[in-house]
Structures are given as C-alpha cells and as structure tokens.
Amino acid sequence: MSDLSDLYQEVILDHNRRPRNYGPLGSANRVAKGHNPLCGDRLTLYVQLDGGRLTDIHFEGSGCAISKASASLMTDAVKGHTVAEAMQLFGQVHAMLTMPLDQPVDDESVGKLAVLSGVREFPVRVKCASLAWHTLKSALLDTHDTAKTE
Ligand code: ZN
To answer: Which helix (H) or strand (E) holds 11?
Structure first.
C-alpha cells in the first residue's frame, strides 16, 4: 500500500502548492466561513449558485496542507454540479473520512477524493480534511456564516 500512500501524498502536496479555484469570487451569492480550532485552519468559501447549480466556487484561507488541499479538491469536485449532487458527495466523503481504517475506500463513488482517505490514520487530521466540506454544506443549506467540524 505504500505506493498508493505516496500517490495520495503527491496529490495533496500538489493541491497545497497550486490550489485550484483559489481567491475571492465577485459573483458569489453564497459565502460561508469555516474554522477548525484544533489545527487553526480557516476557510472562506464563495459559491455562485444559479438555479440550484454551483456554477462557480472559490475559496481562500490559511491552514495546513491537508485543509488547503481538501478545499482545492472539493471545489474541483463540486463545480458545475447541482446542490443535490454536491450534498451526495458530501455524504460520501464524510462517510469515507469517518469509517474504520480497515474498510476499503469506494473510489468509484468519490473518485480522486479518495486521496483524502489517508487522513484516517491521523484522527486529528480528519477535521482538517472535512473542514471544506462542512463549510460547503453550510454555504448551501443554511444561512449561518460559520461552519463547524464534527
Ligand atoms: Zn489542519
């Protein structure tokens, strides 16, 4: 499995170095902030929602490599999709991050987001990886401007 772990690490380092969809988004009509006090990760998410579809999504913030890479991967994964699809992916990623280590990851459903499953070895990092997703849920589903990690 070490080859796979190396690959996962490479993807995370790449997204940390060159985060996708980074920076403010003037056309956003939903904005949500997330904070992971355990690690100090802070995230602001900008979503442009048109007719139930996420036509554009950006993020900015400061935090560890995992939180930034996770936000980068998340924005890539949900851009262009409907709110329902984004919430379904949230559920799949959340399940992946919280399931036992000895359970195989269903990478057919989560695609390259499977790279985030490596954080299960480091429980304190799970909140870093899930921050962007909780912030997304907050932006899409309610009017609170602060996301909480579970
Ligand atoms: Zn972190």
So the answer is: helix 2-17
